[in-house]
Amino acid sequence: MKNILILCCTLFIISCVQQNKNNTNIETIRVDKVFSENLSINLSDIVDTAKYIPLETREEFLIGTVSKVHISKDRIYILDSWQSKSLFVFNKSGKFLNKVGKLGKGPGEYLQPIDFEVDEINRKIYVLDLVSEKLFEYSFEGEFVKNVNVKEKAFFVKKVDKDYYAFYSLFSTGEKEQYFLNIKDFNNNSIKRYFKHDDKVYDNMMPGMCFYEYNNNIFYLPSKGEVIYKIKNLEPIPTYQLFFGNLQLPQITKDNKQEIESKKKEYCVPRRFGITSSVLWFNYHYNMKNYYAFYNKKLKMVLTGIINNNINGLPCWIRWSTSTCLITVVNANEFVDPESDLTEKFVTNNKNAFNGLDMKSNPVLCLYQLKK
Questions:
Q1: Domain for residue 3, yes or no?
Q2: Which residues, other chains included, contact 45 with Cβ-Cβ below 8 Å and sequence gap of 6+?
């Protein structure tokens, strides 16, 4: 309560939620009420502690760029879509367990894994291949089971029901009309399609992450990120309105497309989001800068700005979360660079945790425990 009062007094938090008049189930998050281009957020205002998990390094499982992180009850899944083009599995301490599938053109082999889905209940792992337009099914041990030709130039996949999958697609092969959200069964039968787009006005603002699961509910963020939807009974239901006022990206048409694209940096454009037990968070770009917003679900208040990591001084690009933690990935050189002030702080004082870490090591996961 004390922290909340302090934040209120400094104008960092203001009550920013109003019910949509046309649909009382939609919460409008008024970012415009608190936004300022030079506003910053101290990470300590929302986070209690930080935990570090160095990922084991060997020649056969070197990680280049981390595309996605998923943390389950006893495993950590790391996807590298662009360099090693592999899905790696580690235990909760960062020790390597196995790879899921492998790169190639043979049975069960993918060309560019762009996303994955973990089915904890049935102990299955699904990998989406951008190039071959296939969805691969593997066992928890990483062994190939089967695949289906989804015929979608899709960047994201999410299981939305027992037998159905949602794809975020830029192009559906063989379809005259194109939609961003495509729901299919595992036999590639198209069940539902939403958010039609026209190539002539397509704005090319693909979200950094468009599906999120929390408390057995699936949420979806479209390309321009104006509304977060809950997928219920295979239909997207508007749930949260992200409102930026005059900085909201206008509707793109054939007539205004060129003008809007030339001024794109002047609008607030959400890129990714997550939902935890205490907050809904999302990041957005404005004027070539990276901002975050944290909406307290209980207090109906929002805190927004550029993050100042006063917890540990590390780079803090939040890209994923669990129900209680925010997740970032930090390159090993941030910890062991001899010219960095952070080296002594982390490595020298935590030799057991960072034993063997060097400039070529795999990245380190940073888990920031959210305040309750």
A1: no
A2: 3, 7, 12, 303
pLDDT tens, residue by residue, 118-141: 999 999 999 999 999 999 999 999
How many Cβ atoms are within 10 Å of 125's Cβ, its own excluded?
Answer: 24
The pTM of the full predicted model, rounded to 2 decimals, is 0.89
Q: How many CB atoms lie within 10 A of CB 22?
A: 7
Distance CA(168)–CA(105), nearest Å, equals 24
Can you tell me the mean pLDDT for 178-190? 92
Helices (H) and strands (E) in the chain, counts: 4, 30
Q: Which amino acid is at 279?
A: V
CATH number of residue 100's parent domain? 2.120.10.30
DSSP three-state, residue 345: helix
- What's the domain count of the chain? 1
85, part of any domain: yes
Residue 337 lies in a domain: yes
Q: How many CA atoms lie within 13 A of 235 on its CB side?
A: 3
CB 33 within 8 A of CB 16: yes
Instruction: Provide the β-strand partners of residue 27.
Output: 19, 240
SS3 assignment, position 279: strand
